[in-house]
Amino acid sequence: MLHHDKSESYEVASVKAMSWAKDKLESLIARGRETTAATLEKVDRTLIEDAIVKANRVSFYPGSQEGTLCLEANGFDAAMHEHAADQAVQRLGGTKRISEWAFQPDTAEEFVGILNKKMKALGGKKFLTRCVDGEVRGFMSDRYRRLDVRPLVESLVSTAVKEFGAVPIDAHALDTSFHMKLMLPQVFEPIPNEVGAFGLTFRNSDFGAGRLYIKGFFNRLWCTNLAMCEDGISQVHLGGALSEDIAFSQKTYELDTLTMASAIGDVVRHIFSMENIFARMRAIKEAHAEDHQADIGKVLKGMVRSSKLYKGESEKVIEAFNSPDVELLPPGQNRWRLSNAISLIAQQTKPDRQLELESLAGEVAGLARRAA
Question: Which residue in 212, 265, 300, 306 could disulfide with 204, CB within 3.0 to 4.6 Å?
Answer without folding.
Answer: 212
